[in-house]
Amino acid sequence: MKYVVVLGDGMADEPIEELGGKTPLEAAKTPVMDELAKMSEIGMVRTIPEGMSPGSDTANLSVLGYNPRKYYTGRSPLEALSIGVDMKDTDVVYRCNIVTLTEEDCPYEQQKIVDHSSGEISTEDAKNLMDAVCKELENDTYKFYVGTSYRHCMVWENGQVLELVPPHDVLTQVIGQHLPEDPILRRMQERSYEILKNHPLNLERKAKGLNPANSFWFWGAGTRPALDAFEDIYHKKGVMISAVDLLKGIAVGAKMDRKIVEGANGGLHTNYEGKAQAAVDALTKEDYDFAYIHVEAPDEMGHQGSVERKIQAIENLDQRVIKIVKEGLDASGEDYRMLVMPDHPTPIRLRTHVSDPVPYMLYDSSRKRKETWNYNEREAQAGGIQKGHGWDMMSYLLS
Questions:
Q1: pLDDT recorded at residue 284
Q2: 187-203 confidence digits (pLDDT tens)
Q3: CA 145 to CA 130: how far, in whole Å?
Q4: Within its chain, how far is the Cα of 214 from the centroid?
Q5: Helices 75-82 & 245-253 angle (0-180, nearest 10)
Q6: Which residues pair with 277 in a beta bridge?
Q7: Dihedral, CA atoms, 29, 33, 39, 41, nearest 10 degrees?
Q8: Average pLDDT of 310-339?
Q9: What are the angstrom distances between the C-alpha of 71 and each of 58, 62, 245, 267?
């Protein structure tokens, strides 16, 4: 038996008036998921422990079978693992987004965040901008590390874990009340804006109608994580397939292998087929028992507040990932179980994460079922199983 999780990050949502009261998952054309649903168990599961923040960090740890209450030490340290940061026990790691501020003729604290991802800036362009700022800001106490696209890290030696607001929670808002109280962190954000707003690359981006990447934004602080090895817990050899540093970092911490897929970028126009085929090859041509395919696009489109693009991301997941995985594993002749689910909802209305339960679909090729439902929030809620703890789903999948 082989096992696979297809994780549509932020795919769950709320009923939307312009979709006739349907969610994006209901409105999307998903023939493969709907066909599978009629042969699958569906239901709802809560991935976020009560009282914890509904981040992709806690949620994906949960889906992978790690209780966040036990294992979570912060988001940024997981990302730092992915990019090879050698953390000491006394280091505190922060996410350093490059965001788009409005560039109004007013003080820094009166600016507003337009885009938490700077138009899904390329890693190459982001590195150029990071280098320009870090020449001035970096020292023995504060060190910066380039990640992927707009997602980067800052390590504060002997630092403090400060609660800072994620930029996607501040979209369209005046930033003043959300800035760090620590004077050094705040000044670094302000100085990054002064350096970046007139950087030649940003002038070029604005001339092309692209969002400038004009300010650092610190958040997601934490200390070095200590995850138990996935194979030691579940006795399955696993592989992670994701474009984002968070998931790759979780894989490093869990001692899972990672597949780097060319053209996979965490955006709407990622290499869906490459991710799907990497999973099929790992399960059918290599010695892996388990594959985790993470697709970031639905979450990003939720943060952007785009109904149309979120539906497109879900349809891409259906046709360009799940279809390929199903066909590839069916052709292998080996039995398999496939779990399809989001990690958390990212409602278009809010443009950020919430802690509500999410719909899951569990397909087992060795068990023939005949159901009438499709895979979406409404039918999973009405006719499916209700599960309490997301971190129990991995044991359930592998049982």
A1: 98
A2: 999 999 999 999 999 99
A3: 9
A4: 23
A5: 80
A6: none
A7: -120
A8: 98
A9: 9, 10, 18, 28
